[in-house]
Design a protein that fits this description.
Elements: H1 5-16, E1 33-35, E2 39-41, E3 48-50, H2 64-75, H3 83-90, H4 95-106, E4 120-128, E5 144-153, E6 156-165, H5 170-180, E7 186-189, E8 204-207, H6 217-220, H7 222-238, H8 248-259, H9 267-278, H10 286-290, H11 307-320
Parallel strand pairs: 4-7, 7-8
Antiparallel strand pairs: 1-2, 2-3, 4-5, 5-6
Helix pairs in contact: 2-9, 3-4, 9-11
Length: about 325
């Protein structure tokens, strides 16, 4: 289905402009004039663009067919993907290329406008990094603090949200809750004082004080601690613990993307979702990957999917030999 550059570009065109070409400069929805089947020229302002301009595929020297193979392989790996394995699978000459590709695609794994968690939600924090001695409370020197929220789905786990935070202060924890959990939900936490004002922001706050209890924290907050355990196992297994703190947030996005779709048998749908989000963010230069403290790419709202793309997705799903709903 994606054996040629033309087929890949056609698929990206349908995802980027589902209602027809719209000039990125003047915003007019006009019929473009096509030059050499690659460049599109706006009929009104004469601005030239391409289907990859303004996306993470911009300025790539690698054929889109290889990019599509990479995205298919990444979305079909249950335990995640490492740069060295991606390099071997695709036959890339440079490890740095595979590493940069993975970081670009991780930035496309969070869908703008995604639904907030709801119902009953367990929340707790954990440290990612080497163990430290003589640290008091929730202080940290070389470790990174991550806050985790998990939906309760009966006895199981629903969706999750993770975020790297500088400290376990009330301001950071409340900001995370407002970004991740819908008002009116029941938020179940331990007795840490950073959660003391949760009820003031429209949540029903359930507190379980862990100190002095015979049960372990994993028994009193079982779902969130299971997710924390799986996160640390994934980090040590797939990435051998070699995750830089300044890039950790994007690894958390990848873990969330995979965990929330763990029950999906439809690999073609995951492939489609990742490419759809890849054309909805601005280019990610290598400098921004190496220095994430700089301003990050602006994410655009999700676009309507035309019927012809849905048919192409069905072909992709059938080709994968998998069925089911996400």
């Amino acid at each position: 289905m994606f054996s040629t550059e033309a087929s890949c570009r056609k698929y990206l065109f349908c995802l980027r402009w589902p209602d027809g070409f719209r000039c990125p400069r003047c915003g007019e929805a006009t019929e473009p004039k096509i030059d050499r089947e690659i460049l599109f020229r706006c009929a009104k302002c004469k601005h030239q663009t391409s289907v990859t301009a303004g996306t993470i595929f911009q300025d790539t020297r690698t054929p889109l067919t290889i990019w599509f193979r990479a995205i298919w392989w990444i979305t079909t790996q249950k335990n995640g993907a490492s740069a060295i394995t991606l390099q071997k699978i695709l036959g890339l000459k440079s490890y740095e290329t595979a590493w940069a590709w993975l970081h670009k695609l991780r930035r496309a794994m969070v869908r703008p406008g995604r639904e907030l968690l709801s119902g009953r939600v367990e929340v707790d924090e954990c440290y990612i990094g080497a163990p430290e001695n003589d640290m008091r409370g929730r202080e940290s020197v070389d470790k990174t603090l991550v806050v985790v929220a998990t939906e309760e789905n009966g006895k199981g786990i629903g969706r999750i949200r993770l975020k790297q935070i500088p400290s376990a202060s009330g301001a950071n924890l409340i900001r995370f809750l407002r970004e991740s959990v819908a008002p009116g939900s029941v938020v179940h936490t331990d007795g840490w004082r950073g959660y003391s004002k949760v009820a003031l922001f429209g949540y029903e706050h359930q507190v379980t004080v862990l100190k002095g209890k015979q049960e372990a924290a994993s028994e009193l907050l079982p779902r969130v601690h299971l997710v924390i355990s799986l996160l640390k196992r994934w980090q040590m297994g797939t990435h051998q613990g070699a995750v830089s703190h300044k890039h950790l947030g994007y690894y958390l996005d990848e873990f969330t993307f995979r965990f929330n779709r763990r029950k999906s048998m439809n690999r073609g749908k995951l492939f489609y979702r990742l490419i759809q989000q890849a054309v909805a963010i601005e280019p990610v230069p290598l400098d921004k990957i190496l220095h994430p403290e700089k301003k990050q790419p602006r994410k655009l709202p999700p676009q309507k999917v035309p019927a012809n793309v849905e048919r192409m997705n069905l072909v992709t799903e059938l080709a994968s030999g998998s069925h089911g709903r996400i």
